[in-house]
Fold:
Amino acid sequence: MNYKIPRGTFDILPPQSAKWQYVKQSFHKVASNYGFEEISTPIFEMAELFERSSGESSDVVQKEMYRFQDQKGRSFALRPEGTAPVVRSYIENHLGMQAAHSRLYYMGPMFRYDRPQAGRYRQFYQYGVEFIGSNHPFYDAEVIALEMDFLSELGLKKARLEINSVGCSTCALDYDKALREYYKPHLSELCTDCKTRYELRPRRLLDCKVPSCKAFRTDAPSQFDYLDAPCREHFDQLCGYLELMQIEYTINPQIVRGLDYYTNTAFEIIYDDLGAQNSLAGGGRYNALIAQLGGKDTPAIGFAGGFERLLLALEKEGIEIAKPLKPDIYLVLMGEIAQTTGMEILRILRKRGLYAEYNPEKTSFKAQMKAADASGARYAILLGEDEIKENSLLIKDLSSGNQNKIAGKALAEYPF
Ligand SMILES: [Zn+2]
Ligand SMILES: [Zn+2]
Structure:
C-alpha cells in the first residue's frame, strides 16, 4: 500500500517551509504594531456554530463543510473559516467585559470541501484579525492599514485595495425594494431558487451562479446608491481616514456580501496577476454577528487572507523572502581527541546562537572539507593533531579561503 496525501491538501516541505515561517512571523510582527494579540481556537467546533453564522442554506454549510460525528454522536465540523470561532470564544470568555476593544488575530488551517485548483485547497491556511467593540470608521481604516502594511512588509507592490459599503439593515430595505423592481419583469426567467430569493431576500439574487440569472446582475441597481445618511457618512469617513493614512483605494460597488450580518464597510485586496483566484484577502464590518451568535450586540470589523495565494503573489513579483538554511560553521575534525574537543566546540557555538554542523560519517580530511564546501557554510573550523597540541583552532573563511589561527579559549568571543 502506497499512502498518498488527501486530494486538495499539501505538505509544506523545506526549503519552502522557511518561507511560511517568515510570512507568519511578519504577520505576528505587523499585527503587534497595531496592538493586536493572538487568539488560537480549536480546529473543530460544534457544527451548529457555522450553521448559525453562515446560514444553513449557504454553500459553505450545505456543500463545503467537513462534518463529522464523534463517538457520542455529537455533530462537529472542521472550521471552514476563522471569524465564527473567534466570536464564539469572545462571547464564551466574556472578552467584552475585560476591555472596551478586543484586538485579536489568528492564523491556522481551515477546511472546505471544494474543487481543488490553483490557489484553492481543501485544507488552506488563513490569517486574519477581528477588531471587536467599536463602530468608529477609524478602526475600519486601521484594520485595512494593518493588512496593507503586512503586504508591504513582505515587499508586495502590486496588491490593490477595493472598498465598498453594503449598508445596514435600514438601507437594505430600500435596496431590496429597488432590486425587486428591477427583477420583476424578469421573474419568469429566473431559476427556482431565485424566485424564492426574490420574495425572501432579494440581495441573494446577486449571488446566483446559474448563468441565465447571473446575466441580470450587470445592470442590477447597486447597494452603494441606496445607502442612508448614516451609512454614507460612515463610508465617507472611512475614505477620509484612508487618505490621511496614504492608503490608495478604488471604490467597487460590486463587492457584495451574501450574509445578513455584514454591515457597512466591505473590502478586498486584489492581486491581478493571480487570474481567477485573485483575492488575497477580504473583510468588512459584521456588526450583527455577535448578537446573532448569542452575545451582546457589539460592532466589529475584521478580515481574513490566505497564505497560499500570498506566497504565489510573492513568487510572481520575484521576491526572495527566505533563504535556505546554511550552516554558519562546519567542523572538520581529524583524530579521536579532535572529535572529543569538537563536541565541546559544537556546544559553545550553538550556545552563541550559531548554526554549527559536523558529520562523523566522513572521516578523511578531504571528504570533510568537501562536505564543508557543499554545505554552503561561511566558515570551517579545522582541528587536527597540531592544533590539539597547541590548544588552538584554525578558522577558515570558506568564500575567501583566508585562515586564522586562534587560541581555543578565544572561540567564545570570536567575531564570526
Ligand atoms: Zn444604512
Ligand atoms: Zn438563480
Q: What stands out?
A: The pocket of zinc ion (ligand 1) is lined by residues 167-168, 170-171, 227-228, 230-231 (CB under 6 Å). The chain has two domains: 16-168+228-316, 329-413. The chain has 15 helices and 16 strands. The mean pLDDT is 94.
